[in-house]
Design goal:
There is one protein chain. With about 290 residues, the protein is an alpha+beta fold. It folds into 3 domains: about 160 residues, Glycosidases (TIM Barrel, Alpha-Beta Barrel); about 80 residues, Immunoglobulin-like; about 45 residues, no CATH class. Helices cover about 15% and strands about 30% of the residues.
């Protein structure tokens, strides 16, 4: 369609929509053509990514309501803390995004600082089959999700939980099994909305840090087996603690299903729990790793 026809067609669509349902406003997910007359006809401007365009567009159209129609597209693999292209894994640290998008922390800081942006829709809540990104085959699903294909939270889930709710949050990662990397620095992150967090390695303080608004905390810790612990404070008192412990090799594996029968309707599913027993010098308990399957 020629560019000159676009605004006329959009205008006709909006007019007809308002005739059919005058209670609804019209919006669109705008990827480009911000300077054309197409977006300004919308009742609500919808921005898809393109953070460099927002301020200029708003300055030219200050009375038009605006929303992030599609944001984020941050990619990560749950429980993985180093990117491995051979295995099609993406680090779960908030460090990776597509060429057109932003990190979770990056886009939300931007939107939070602008009252005229009413909010944004993160792409996506769940990983999903199709659109394998950033890898192709043998990947068969995206890695955009805030939670994975089975509905289990990735680490970025706790960033959003910390800053989109009022419940106290303290989330520590990564796992603490790095055999063969003794003495190497490991990035340790915390998502929290408390006042400050102090990190410990085997009981020795690695330093306390003040929680900055909409920002994660980060330490570089030389690996040694044992326990890392985060202690979060609120109003000068410890409010939450969280640990990650080194485990030994697997001793036994047991899978149990939540039920033994399902409906043959193509919609029902059962959930399984994998119970992996591990041992390390008798100190550490069993690890329970939840799985889901159809």
């Amino acid at each position: 369609m020629p560019q000159s026809q676009g605004p006329r067609v959009v205008s006709d669509m909006i007019t007809r929509t308002h005739e059919l349902d005058p209670t609804r406003m019209c919006s669109a997910a705008v990827n480009a053509s911000f300077g054309s007359h197409f977006p300004e006809q919308l009742d609500v401007m919808g921005f898809n990514y393109n953070l460099k365009e927002h301020d200029g567009y708003h300055k030219a159209h200050p009375r038009q309501p605006s929303v992030g129609s599609e944001t984020a597209s941050t990619v990560s693999t749950r429980g993985i803390y180093s990117t491995d292209k051979l295995r099609n894994w993406v680090s779960a640290y908030d460090l990776n995004h597509t060429a057109w998008s932003q990190l979770a922390e990056e886009w939300w800081k931007f939107y939070s600082a602008r009252e005229w942006l009413s909010g944004g829709f993160a792409w996506t809540g769940f990983d999903y089959r199709g659109e394998p990104t950033p890898y192709g085959w043998p990947s068969i699903n995206s890695q955009f999700g805030i939670v994975d294909m089975c509905g289990f939270p990735k680490d970025n889930f706790y960033y959003y939980k910390a800053w989109w709710g009022s419940e106290p949050v303290l989330h520590l990662f990564p796992q603490w099994n790095w055999e063969g990397r003794e003495g190497e620095p490991i990035p340790v992150w915390v998502h929290s909305n408390l006042d400050s967090v102090e990190l410990f390695l085997n009981g020795k303080s690695q330093g306390s840090k003040k929680v900055e608004q909409l920002t994660h905390l980060e330490w570089s810790v030389k690996y040694e087996p044992g326990v890392i612990e985060a202690r979060g404070t609120k109003n000068g008192k410890i409010a939450l603690t969280e640990k990650r412990e080194t485990t030994g090799g697997p001793v036994s594996i047991k899978v149990t299903a939540d039920r033994t029968e399902i409906h043959a309707d193509g919609e029902d599913r059962r959930y399984s729990r994998l119970k992996c027993s591990t041992v390390r010098a008798g100190r550490f308990p069993q690890r329970q790793i939840p799985l889901a399957s159809r």
